[in-house]
Amino acid sequence: MAARFFLAGDVEAAEEGAFLWSMADLMTLLLVFFVLLYANSINRPEIAAQAPEPERRTVASSMGVDSDLLPEVQPVESIPAEETSAPNPEPPAANLPLTEGEDPVEPLNQEMMNGLKDSFSNDFYVRWDEKQPVFVLGERITFNVGDAILLADAQSALKRIADWIAPQHQYQIIVSGHTDDIAIRTSRFPSNWELSAARAASVAKFLASHGVAPQRLIIQGKSEFHPLVANTSDENRRANRRVEISLLKGRQTSENS
Q: Which pTM does this prediction carry?
């Protein structure tokens, strides 16, 4: 009888332990359930608010919330692909004469600018830098490759530029020479610095000899470091080999000083 009583006690203790473990598992599951329910209640109103009315009601019902209590959120309109994509880079400056009625710079004489239009080409054009004109002369009409002697083809355009800017005393003139990225090494031009500066000097001397006050002229040799386009082809390199004549407003000088 004693042995039988001992075995029954063991069975009862084992059953009690199993019950406690089952209760612990149940409590753990309930805790996980309530955590998930809480997290779901934080995120679901926003989702429900963006859904159409029938869907909002379904979501609200599943959450045990009145659909009228969910916040109203205006739907976000999709943005067309062309508006979100980065804009295409502008093509390199080409022929940019003034158009009819355009007057980007004051007090530039529109009639005189229009008088230059028939000279514009892919090798001679005007671009605008912060609403101030920059005359661009390509190498093809100004210099032979690797040389700084001004060609006759450019002298007609330069003469007309000189006639136009000479009386514009409120502008200082900066003449800058530019090359491509191909190195030069000759006895006269050890590098592109010397070549670009010599070309700028040739243009500045021509302007000075045709009525532009020398004290208004500044010469810059910029070598290959300010390209218009990437030096990735012969055509791009040709576009980068140029001389630019920039007019800076507000730099009036006395021609007698």
A: 0.57
